[in-house]
Amino acid sequence: MRKTYLYSTLILSLLAVCSFAAPRLTVVAVVDGLTTENLAMLRPYWQQGGLRTLSEEAYQTTVAFPQLVYGGNETTATLVTGETPDRHGYTMDTYFSRRDRRIHAMLKDEEMHGIGTSIHIGPKALLTRTITDRMRILYPAAKIYAIGIQPETTVLLAGHAANACCWIDAASHKWVATAAYTEGLPTAAYDYNNGGRFDILAAHQWTPRMDIPMYNHPTEQERKKSFSYAVKDILTKSPEANTLVIELALALQKEQKLGTDATPDLLMLQFNTLSPLAQSDAIESAEQEDMYLRLNQDLGYLMEQLDKRIGRANYQVLVVGRPVLGTSAQTLSDLHMPVQQFNVDRAAALTGTYLMALYGHERWVDGSYGQSLYLNRTLIEQKRLSLETIQRQVANFLMDFEGIQIAMPGHEAMLHPLLGSTLCKRHTGDVVFVLQPGWQLMQDERHAIDRVIDDKPKVPLMLWSGTLRPMPQNQLTATDVADLIF
Q1: 7 in a structural domain
Q2: Residues 410 and 479 both lie in one domain
Q3: Any idea of the CA torsion for 48, 236, 370, 157, to the nearest 10 degrees?
Q4: Is 241 exposed, middle or buried (CB count within 10 Å of its CB: 0-12, 13-18, 19+)?
Q5: Sign of the CA dihedral 278, 284, 289, 292?
Q6: Given this model, what pLDDT does residue 365 score?
Q7: How many CA atoms within 13 Å lie on the side-chain side of 40?
Q8: Which helix (H) or strand (E) holds 146?
Q9: Same structural domain for residues 219 and 358?
């Protein structure tokens, strides 16, 4: 009896190990503009396809971001690192430099030349480990690739340890890359560039798959004239961009034999659901619905091919949304919640005038960006003034501005329960402020910094696995996503 019990226990233990072993291939797909509401609304259209399979078979939940969200790749950085901006260092797509008083791209790296592009970009700004880094540490021989539509998103998906990453160059209609990764531009991408596929897709005319009355939210213009785009003019905002990502992913899988041996491999992909007309993450046009319908088809093709090539039990797919446009200002206005705009440059100019009245006609403010004002520390030191006193005076001055909820010195903001997770020490200004609900952050009269004016937007997450594995039962945040694949 005892032998039988021990034998049964051993068998169950072995089954558990086999069931929960790491899949041979993990596909992580970050989808710009993907929302739970859009998925639910369009589900009746999906008789088959990737989104249909995921909606029926995947673990599903929604995740919220424990930080302020602006619509840039600060959300991508949080998803791939499992950390908030105070830890991973990517607070916005751009930052203010005290050195030259200019705005710079967060991932710009002059040491990393572009391959097929003039963009110099690399992952140096990411301060913590990413999904790819963790995969490389666990499995040094893993083959890891990132493929996307935009350079910043793709590099963040690649992290520090990918073999290569490549994205679509909107001007040349080719796959391009950065020298930040050992393999540069993969052979599959070179072959793709020279094979004429870009030319074929770019020559397409994007028109509706269905009659316009069959869509849920056609605009008045679409009802009158439908919609039609020359793909060559809007390639990175067309359904063909998602198709290109899928096709190169499958070409790389074949070339590198991803998922065919005992060492787990990783594909990091970016997709887009936001059409040229989009003013919101919520679907407000037939063309945006069409983006979803075509993405469903593309994801279905990806999973169908992986089933054939490596077997259904040998891979997993994680799909997660990324808030880009949030709720449109017009929608909020229609709900009698009008959005007002706060001009950061104007606030900085008025602050400079205020400090001149107190301390003399000098340039007391070096610049402004985001939620920060940057004081002229060199001048303050030369005048032998107290930086902390001036910080407090400026914070009190800003509190009188319409739209500002709270303002404080930068070092205090780093400890604030709302701001602490959003700010990174390297880029935080001398005085930091938070806007009241219903206010949008503007750099000047025309350029918005904050495109997502929702309060802590949530995005859908779906995790499909070909093997039995435990799934979390607790509510997740964006910092939990990276842990799901390990």
Answers
A1: no
A2: no
A3: 60
A4: buried
A5: positive
A6: 97
A7: 10
A8: strand 144-148
A9: no
Which CATH number do you get for residue 370? 3.30.1360.150
At 166 the three-state DSSP class reads strand
Q: Say yes or no: 311 and 356 in one domain.
A: no
Tokens 């701001």 -> residue: 419
Tokens of 232: 């060559």
Give the C-alpha separation, 463 to 484, whole Å: 8
CB-count burial class (<10 Å; 0-12, 13-18, 19+) for 72:
buried
Count how many domains the chain has: 2
Identity of the amino acid at 456: K
280 shares a domain with 168: yes
Question: CA-CA distance, 252 to 145, in Å (whole number)?
Answer: 8
Residues 213 and 261 in one domain: yes
Domain of residue 362, residue span: 340-442
What is the rounded distance in angstroms from the CA atom of residue 454 to the CA atom of residue 331?
Answer: 12
Q: Is residue 413 part of a domain?
A: yes
User: CA 122: distance to chain centroid?
Assistant: 16
Q: Which helix (H) or strand (E) holds 53?
A: helix 50-57
pTM of the predicted structure, to 2 decimals: 0.93
For residues 243 and 383, state if they share a domain.
no
- In this prediction, residue 158 carries a pLDDT of 98
Q: Are residues 411 and 481 in the same domain?
A: no
Handedness of CA 390, 392, 393, 399 (dihedral sign): positive
Tokens of 470: 């435990």
| Model confidence pLDDT, tens digit, residues 397-455 | 999 999 999 999 999 999 988 788 999 998 999 999 999 999 999 998 889 999 998 88
Q: What are the φ and ψ backbone dihedral angles of 121, each rounded to 5 degrees? A: -150, 145
